[in-house]
């Protein structure tokens, strides 16, 4: 990988055409690859030589996007997945099995909360949720002998709180387990969790990375720094019977985790990113740095307007000096806090719904982090499955509105909010 600055890497990393080759990343819309000998195929299947076997496991178009995302996050490798949900699922299940345990921040995306609290539980993996703002001693109480990972979000969706990544990294290190950080909202442009001690980074590329709401996708990035040989991860160090006895740490050194995720989990479960979606995600990544700058700039203006309105009860946006997470944002998000704001308007749930229905430019969509301004009421959509007490644990009041500031002129967005507030 190159030592270029991150803006240059958004455009130039991943695909590097040779003389006379297409300038733009080609879409290798092929499930399969051709070989000269059966011996070569056998070596591929024994993981003795690198190369593509089958698009479920790897594909040249997808691989370029994986290399670009790994470079942006500062990892040794990445694996693209069919969605952000798949990325979180594989990131955890790659190192957890029945009987294992995970400590997770309770302030996370509703889909991840459901995955952790219901689906993983059925698979025998138990997740304990902690308050990310609690003291280290308090969080330590959630650990058990079978704890295998810690999970949290850089900027929590939709509470818009900022994670103290170094605190979580310290706790994880003390317990000899990796820290997995969902960096979807911040993107590597605003924060690179690996620089603060995260071991694995996951993304819903569906959001800012794509940026135009065309492709559902996800990614897992491996920092390559975690010591899998500490005795807690036999699946990483002992021979894998499904690969003629390959031991991942021995065969792939610092890439053990991400290789296992691909050749074992992706091979068996099959939630891969399609070449077409990788192509579209790559186009999004090329402008990520510029878009993030404008999302942040517009969001500050909108957040200030909301803060000044007597119709608004409270605003969560960490770039505002009055925000609870202002200092944390100064440390982890010095370039800005993304385009997502959450706020509550006076009058409760009914008034929140009325406000949303009156908006003309901002569209009601089950999506965030997109070029077009969007608005969502988490309690009646993404977090609908949560009980009132689970909602409060996740930091979501029933009247909370999640507002995703787009790339339109900020004055037009503000005028729309103003007329809808009435
Ligand atoms: C949307 C989202 C996810 C899930 O991603 P999908 O691509 O929708 O599966 C995970 N984490 C966060 C923070 C998200 O915003």
Automatic annotation (TrEMBL):
Keywords, A to Z, come to: Pyridoxal phosphate, Transferase
**What SUPFAM superfamilies has UniProt attached to this entry?**
PLP-dependent transferases
Top-level taxon of the source organism: Bacteria
For the keyword Transferase, the answer is yes
**Annotated positions of the N6-(pyridoxal phosphate)lysine modification:** 207
Per the similarity annotation, which family is this?
Answer: Belongs to the trans-sulfuration enzymes family.
What is this protein's name?
O-acetylhomoserine sulfhydrylase
């Amino acid at each position: 990988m190159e030592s270029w600055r991150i803006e240059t890497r958004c455009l130039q990393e991943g695909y590097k055409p040779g003389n006379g080759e297409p300038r733009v990343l080609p879409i290798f819309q092929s499930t399969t690859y051709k070989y000269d000998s059966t011996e070569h195929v056998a070596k591929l299947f024994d993981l003795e030589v690198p190369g593509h076997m089958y698009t479920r496991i790897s594909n040249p178009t997808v691989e370029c996007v994986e290399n670009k995302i790994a470079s942006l996050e500062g990892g040794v490798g990445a694996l693209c997945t069919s969605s952000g949900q798949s990325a979180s699922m594989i990131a955890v299940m790659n190192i957890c099995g029945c009987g294992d345990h995970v400590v997770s921040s309770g302030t996370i995306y509703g889909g991840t909360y459901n995955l952790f609290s219901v689906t993983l539980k059925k698979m025998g993996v138990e997740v304990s949720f902690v308050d990310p703002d609690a003291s280290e001693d308090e969080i330590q109480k959630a650990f058990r002998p079978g704890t295998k990972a810690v999970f949290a979000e850089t900027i929590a969706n939709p509470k818009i709180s900022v994670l103290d990544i170094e605190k979580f990294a310290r706790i994880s290190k003390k317990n000899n387990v990796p820290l997995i950080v969902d960096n979807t909202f911040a993107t590597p442009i605003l924060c690179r969790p690996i620089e603060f001690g995260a071991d694995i980074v996951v993304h819903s590329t569906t959001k800012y990375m794509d940026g135009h709401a065309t492709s559902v996708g996800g990614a897992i990035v491996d920092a390559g720094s975690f010591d899998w040989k500490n005795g807690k991860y036999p699946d990483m160090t002992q021979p894998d019977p499904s690969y003629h006895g390959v031991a991942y740490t021995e065969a792939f050194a610092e890439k053990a985790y991400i290789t296992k995720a691909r050749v074992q989990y992706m091979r068996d479960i099959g939630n891969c990113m399609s070449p077409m979606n990788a192509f579209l995600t790559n186009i999004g990544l090329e402008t990520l740095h510029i878009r993030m700058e404008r999302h942040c700039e517009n969001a500050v203006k909108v957040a200030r307007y909301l803060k000044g309105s007597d119709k608004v009860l409270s605003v969560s946006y960490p770039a505002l000096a009055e925000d609870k997470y202002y200092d944390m944002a100064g440390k982890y998000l010095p370039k800005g806090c993304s385009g997502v704001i959450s706020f509550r308007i006076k009058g409760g749930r009914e008034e929140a719904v009325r406000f949303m229905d009156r908006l003309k430019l901002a569209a009601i969509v089950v999506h965030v982090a997109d070029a077009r301004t969007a608005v969502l009421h988490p309690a009646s959509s993404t977090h609908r499955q949560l009980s009132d007490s689970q909602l409060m644990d996740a930091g979501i009041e029933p009247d909370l509105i999640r507002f995703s500031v787009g790339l339109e002129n900020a004055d037009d967005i503000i005028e729309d909010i103003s007329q809808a507030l009435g």
